[in-house]
Amino acid sequence: MSLFAFMGGLETGLLYAFVALAVYFSFRILDFPDLTVDGTFPFGAAMTATLIASGCNPWIATLCGMLMGSLGGMATAYFSTRWNILHLLASILTMTALYSINIRTMGGVSNLSIMNAPTVLTPFYGLAKAVGMPDMFLRPLVLFGILGLVYLMLVWFLYSEVGLAMRATGANRRMARAQGVGADWQVIGGMMLSNALVGLAGSLYAQINQAGDTSIGPGTIVIGLASVIIGETLLPSRRIWVRLLASIIGAVVFRMVTQMALEMDVLGLQAFDLNLVTAVIVLCALCLPKLKQKVFA
Questions:
Q1: How many helices (H) and strands (E) does the chain have?
Q2: What is the arithmetic mean of pLDDT over 192-220?
Q3: How far is CA 93 from CA 63, 154, 199, 213, 236, in A?
Q4: Which pTM value belongs to this model?
Q5: Phi-psi map region of 4: left, alpha, beta (phi>0 left; psi -120 to 50 alpha)
Q6: CA distance linking residue 9 with residue 29, whole number of Å
Q7: Element spanning 112, H or E
Q8: 197: closest CA among 51, 9, 16?
Q9: pLDDT tens column, 163-205
Q10: What angle do CA 36, 282, 265 make, to 5 degrees?
């Protein structure tokens, strides 16, 4: 694998690490299978691209992308908790609706270019140029810094009183209610936080690739879930901060393995084989815990 391909894989892995954290939060913390991320990922990208194209400050546009993602999560959680709609069905309905909303957000087009427009990375490009750092090193470095900050804030939150109440709700909702915890509000708040992270990932994706695109959504949940499973297999632990770190590592490993598979000439794989490679890696990730259990039994 060339250095350029390696850095590209690392960059994409760090980007999808935000999704992995979000998926861990909804699946493991809240015990809420959520497919909304396939819609909120391009929603964050669409909102950010639209605002940046209209001349908005990129940092404000990024926050708006996060906000739009959180609203998508809130809709799914509201339908599920208020109207007792099955969580999977509620998330599918929200995801389906967001496809049309994303196109409307970008003015009726499925792809909106923000080429040469200022982004959150623009100031760092100038700094990197001054020290002679190539862009392929800069983007992963910036993503690593943002991801590290999000990780620390998420660990702090989950160890706080509100975070502990949210974890209790996911572990046993009936017992949480008996202890006076507003379980429905905890689910809504947790889903908003989870999809805000997905919206942030979509926002950063749009700014790195200089375009908002509605086609980037399908398969996001698969990548996030595979990252969580790979991380839990590689770094098993009962501690929350370790599990969150494992999700990040899993996202990077997943993307690097995908990149390596596509780069191996002996397999004869092309870019259009990405979905096939993704499916195989996800299948292997799902089988890993069982295989590990048999080997070390």
A1: 12, 2
A2: 95
A3: 25, 28, 18, 20, 34
A4: 0.94
A5: alpha
A6: 28
A7: strand 111-113
A8: 16
A9: 999 999 999 999 999 988 999 999 999 999 999 999 999 999 9
A10: 125
